[in-house]
Amino acid sequence: MDTQDWYDVKEFAPGTYQFTEAERWNMFLFIGGERALLLDGGIGVGSARRLAESITDLPIDHVLTHTHWDHVGAIHEWESVGVHPNGKDKLANDYSAGCRDFVETWKGRPFPEGFDPETFTIPPGKFGRAVQEGDVIDLGGRTLRVWDTPGHSPCSISLFDDKERVLITGDLVKPGMPLFIQVPTAVLSDYGPSMRKLEKIAKENDARWVCSGHTDPCGDISIIGRMAAFVEEVEAGAHEPPKKREAGKWGVVDEYEATGFSVWIKDHARK
Ligand SMILES: [Zn+2]
Asked: Is 9 helix (H, G, I), strand (E, B) or coil?
């Protein structure tokens, strides 16, 4: 397996892999009977495509849960990429600010061979197809269904793998980590409905794993409903006043603490 001494790889269900880049950014490889799917691509310091192709010989499609810089690092490695229509124009964004910030603050394992921190940026990708609610991605004997789940970003989608009952939530539900409602694209009022949608999908389909862009697979699906309820309370003003917290590049954010997780918000997301 070609980890480039950079990616951590976990096969948490048969034919279902979580790759983690730089200990904080996840992507997921689903292997079907005829095709494979790589969901998200990390930040692209390593080559996610090389890693994926070292695991399967099947053709691999690349789809994004949303277009934040820390998920699009592999878009240039594919001929074209699947993304929600709201993210179509973002594939050509300039992501160099995030890249610079990462290189300047990274203190972990050495960069992979051949990586140049001086020139690191994320090249643009090409839009291939819209991926949105109602779509079914057929990998041959394995299907993933798609739902629109805005909140963290207007282009956020979630996917459910019918074979291993894995729910991928992008950055919407992050068990054990703060919910990032402070990012520029976040809309607080979209969180509750999207999370309730995921709660229903997880229950109806007896989901086994809830997976996100930044946390390890979580086997406790009740976390979705608990997070939804808390976010709804925050939106209704039930937890005022929030704590103020210094949150690095995001400046001072409002922090609401629940049991086992917290919520970070900036005012723009409340409108
Ligand atoms: Zn994000």
From this structure: strand
| 141 Cα to the center of ligand 1, angstroms | 30
CA of 66 to the centre of ligand 1 (A): 7
- pTM of model > 0.85: yes
3-state class of 160 per DSSP?
strand
Q: What is the dihedral of CA 8, 11, 15, 19, to 10 degrees?
A: -20
CATH architecture for the domain at 7-178+187-221: 4-Layer Sandwich (3.60)
Q: How far is the CA of 107 from the centre of ligand 1 (A)?
A: 22
pLDDT tens, position by position, 128-181? 999 999 999 999 999 999 999 999 999 999 999 999 999 999 999 988 889 999
219-265: pLDDT as tens digits: 999 999 999 999 999 999 999 999 999 998 899 999 999 998 999 99
Q: Are strands 16-21 and 7-13 parallel, antiparallel or unpaired?
A: antiparallel
Q: Separation of 244 CA from ligand 1 center, angstroms?
A: 22
Could you give the 3-state DSSP secondary structure of residue 25? strand
Ligand 1: distance of its center to the CA of 135 in Å?
Answer: 22
What long-range pairs does 235-242 form, CB within 8 A, spacing at least 24? 235/188, 235/189, 235/191, 235/192
